Structures
1.
Amino acid sequence: MGIDELLMVALMPVLKTLLIAVVGLFLAVDHISILSATARHHLNNLVYYVFFPSLLASSLVDSISAANIISLWFTPVSILLTFIIGSALGWILVRITKTPQQLHGLVIGSCAAGNMGNLPVIIIPAICAEKNNPFGDSFSCSRNGMAYVSLSMSIGAVFVWSYVYNIIRICGTESDGNVQISSTISKNQSAEINSSDSSREELLLKGCPSSQDYHVQPTFVLKRSEDGVKVPFKQHLKSLLGKIDLRMLLTPPTVATVVGLLIGVSPLREVIVGGTAPLRVVESSVLLLGEAAIPSMTLIMGANLLRGLKRSGVNLWMILGIILIRFAALPVLGVVIIKAARDFGMVGSDPLYHFVLLLQYSVPPAMAIGTITQLFEVGETECSVLMFWNYAVAAIAMTLWATYYMWLLL
């Protein structure tokens, strides 16, 4: 295949995602206001509690089995590497740009966590549907591709809702703690805090802690004792681990991932999956709910980008830094890592699997980061701006990287 054909194959799924996102953006404008803030809030709850878990569970049950899960062992390793490398680069970025303390978690999380959910789920089937795709016939390509993407999506969701959730929470609450200790709260600040009581009560009803719940916790800063001796690092580490909310490991996406994997690799799969399975109606119902996740998530993504379009008072260097990390540094390192893994025989010989692994390094930040910032009311405006510019650049960057990946794997 020529480079022009590969470019068209890579461009079609990106355009499809953009068109749906534009519809979401249009529905969110003030004159239409179908996807208003309240509507997005309720739709986001449906996605988080119903649609996305259904998509994860149905995809894993249908495509993962005891026979193929062992061969996909490198998937979690690759995702872990994206988070480690992205976090390290994000930490360097916050130091260089002198990012405010409360935004450290947002910047590091945006560099570490990529959108391994709705974008690959749209991109892979769309590429497979192209007649001249480089990965074989459409049916086999879609079936195998969904197995790879489902596992990536599930593991990525676990990392986002455990690691990124906690790092944004910790950085946000540390900032709150510093303000509480170093200054006296004015009457205006007290009024603002009181006005947010209803929001915090709503979060508590959902079982989600708000940033105010943690304002009395000690800040994670290097302190000295009265005699001038530094507090040991072990004590700081213990303080940090004590702040990690392990309850977030039991989020609906995580539970759905575990259930889907257990059913997929167990004999129970024969009872649920297949045209003659006794409980096939259960799989069909869950699959029907899961099919609503992708359009809903993409509409929300487009609607949320409207806020970023309206507001531009964010550090330009912080935006450029995240864009360079996500669309330049990570993809280049990803090519090196996957090429080395392929040379050592760690990822098998399927080029489609290699393509999915490479795609993990070149996607924009996970949209779930926006949901997390809304939960803790930390960096919501900055997150909207970051997401807008990253997804605007992704339209071009992902097309070019996908074209290069396919050329590299031919």
2.
Amino acid sequence: MATPQSNRETVDFIDEKLHGPDHVEKVLRTVQIDNFQVLGLRPEDADFYTNYPPEARKKLLRKVDVRLIPMLAVLYLISHLDRANIGNAKIEGLDTDLGLSGLQWNIVLSIFFIPYVLLEVPSNMLLKNFARPSVYLGILITSWGIIMTLTGIVQNFAGLMVTRILLGVFEAGFFPGAVYLGTFWYMPKELSTRIAIFYCASALSGAFSGLLAAGIAQMDGVGGQEGWRWIFLLEGIATVILGIISTKWLDLEEIRYLELQHFIKEGGNFKEEKKKTSWKDIKATMLNWRMYMLAYILLAQSACSYGTKFTLPTITQAMGFQDTNAQLMTVPPYVAGAISAVFFSILSDRFYWRMPFVVTPLAFVIVGYAVILSLDGKLEENVGPAFFAVILTCIGIYPIHPSTTSWTANNLAPSSRRAIGLAFNICIGNIGGIIGSYMYLESEKPKYHTGFGLSLALGASALIVTLLLELSFVFANREKAKMSEVEVRARYTDDELLAMGDKSPLFKYTL
């Protein structure tokens, strides 16, 4: 029997042939041990892998879930707190104390994203070369925690600019690196839910940001420091502590099993395990036009997300809530967004179908912003509809990223191109952060026609792109199905098929 060559085929191979009480017999009937040697595995590795107890497999997955995902979620929560708490600091007087003009405020928000966007791909390439990725990520986390702490002592516009730039430098590698690690440890059918669980920390960061800011701001005057400074100082110190903490939580046998699973998932391309990423992989990824469609969906989502994060405290103020209440009223929309992200992603993994769980949230985004626009800035007179619309937009915004990121990961092969492609798409998507920094103009407050209108347009255009992308995958799969596996193998060698990656006639795109 032929060796599995595609992600989808390998998923079926792992899920259907290796799980269950009679997994060894199924393996021996369907994939002979000799075929593991075709993959580049030693006979003892094949024997170890096929005889790894199903109870141990389930226990290991739970172990990874319990220890990896919560850790990533907490760190991602901290990263978003550290980049978005500037919006909370604003209504506590940051802009007034530092003498920022309206335009300077937008520049401070957007400058973070320039190094953040430019360094994501190089960072993921560097991560792939690190013997211990946890050490690399720990260095990044500790560094941005130090920068966040220093933000609490800036005295002017220039100082704030420097800290925001450095924050972008060190935060750039975390999210794409975390997603790449997820693709290493989890099978494709398990991926979207796991990404959603730690990505929902992005939504919860908005909620925690409001709660923390409301509490910390009460320290105004302590140590002769303004309340907004304590927001940066305390959250920065907490980040440094988390960055330093590290644990060893997998034993050698578990690591060996997961590495073999990853090896087989890649179609057994042992050459792919080399440390350096080739220019051929970079070129193949950059010329993959579908990656740009996926990246645009992330860009639209990111613009809406960051626009909301930076402006929601001001929007709740426009609804008539003041000071601490304005901070606290930002919590419910983000909690709804976090729940929505996990709910839609569970369904996406359950049906192993990404498109509907991108399109449906985008529809919520469109409806939510349409309602807000229709209120024409009269938010205080229409608190109920306005607040409902804000919640609806968050319910729509937050599921889009995990489903789209999983869609990207599922349709890129081998892992070297996946590492580049994930970072590239997240990189392009984060350009939306720059857009989100300028959408809500102080001069348009509280109507924000530009911000709400552009968010509506981005949601609608992303929905159209998603549907077109789905059609392209459907047609591509139909074309590939025209050749039988026998015909494909008669035309191409195994090395050629592996080099083709997702372009291989045996690779079936995930819809």
3.
Amino acid sequence: MTWEFTDDREVTVRMAGRPLRVAAYLRAGAGLFDLGVRPVGVYGSAHDGARPDPAKSGALAGQDVPYLGAGGALDERALRSVRPDLIVDVTYDREHAYAVDGSVAARAGIPVLALAVSADVPLTRILGRFAELGRALGGRRPADLAGDAREPGAGGLAAAEDAVRTAALGGPGPRVLALSAAGPDRVHLARPRTWPELRHLADLGVRLVEPGPGGVNWSTTTWEAAAGFGADVILADSRGNAVRPADLARQPGWRAVAERAVVVGWNPELPGSPGACAAFLRAVADGLAAARDETA
């Protein structure tokens, strides 16, 4: 029986049977793993190093899935080493896979599927497409995306969304600033509408700070200028290429903010699974509630 799947670049991959060995970009691999598809290998992007970024790895961390390298280190020899039938990546422009070079994949003779995670894609759409691919690859069928019954204890994605709504309700809610710490002299402030998970938070009632002009996804500024927004909750980029959230208090001009604001880790490359998104939303809900307690 022929297996086929059309990705968000309108590229259709057809095979004689379902792919059994899948290599994936870390973000995509973590999402598929949550959906019951275990990659045979994962790789990073040009922003990653010689080891997998724990923030991007999600539940894959500690699973002994081979890491094939990142950027220029990801060549056809590395890809072939795990004998994949298929590569799964993401796309931001619906034309190119983000982390794997198309020519490298072509030389390795491995087809590539890429799912869209760009600013204009709703979070629910991202989750739906990953679920669709996970099912096509033989993963266990996720429960209703509006309420993943497999989530332990908290009732899944729908419950996490309700928790955010509840924490955001009542008067002017806590001001939330999403950022990526670039170093002692500058910080990148996220534009909420250009990140699907932040846009989803705004739709749930969260009061997200809009940064000043400059840049498409980020507005780069000084720590002093960032402190001027008076945020109550900081969503801090937890990826390896950013300064760790725990170290934010050391940044010049930021100490006073860090001492009073609640810091929540934010992975701008969330795995495309209900579980990963629910965990993030619950952390935000807890941060909002803690910020309210601080100002009560």
4.
Amino acid sequence: MTLSNKEPVVAVVVAAGSGSRLGADLPKALVPLEGVALVRRAVDALLAAGVGQVVVTIPPDHESGFAAALNGTGARLVPGGADRQDSVRLGLLGLDAPDDAVALVHDAARALVPTDVVRRVADAVLGGAEVVIPVVPVVDSIRRVDPDGSAIVDRSLLRAVQTPQAARLGALRSAHERVLADGVEVTDDAAVCEHVGMRVSLVDGHRDAMKVTEPVDLILAKALLAERSPADARRHRD
């Protein structure tokens, strides 16, 4: 099943980060997971969900590596900026779509995002939500640290945020330009949109959309991948 609508759904995949914390000598998004680059798995998940156009922001001087990894996907490569925030802004400018298109922003490091999560996020914007983010419950005990010690935090009120995050393309572009002009630093696109007064809605994410950051995350990702269907493995070999 894919997105069943006549409105365009497009995406920016942020892939301009280094692989230093993974101990890799190449950009993190090009690190292979069972023989397939993380960025390729992320882009394939978006396309399988029905996303019509994908722009990938990449580090300078690595175009050939990304072009090889994404061969056949139709993804457009755009040089990223100095940080994630700027890379997203540049990626949004690289999309060729109307202002009312649904724009997803996804981290290449969340390579195993289920297609159902992608559809859920896009469908919520299509249904009228201003900004949509996927979340999962926090399972660890959390303590708040202050100068006088620490205190337990009620984790039932907390959610861990994932990607893709989404809004209408014109609104998302404007929000990023406003944040840039105001000199505000943010950690994700939901915060960008909240800065200009947009309302954020939550939908269910999935544990498989974990972010690959450190070597142990690759081990977990390989275990998750092993539980997926043979059809998934064949799709990435073809």
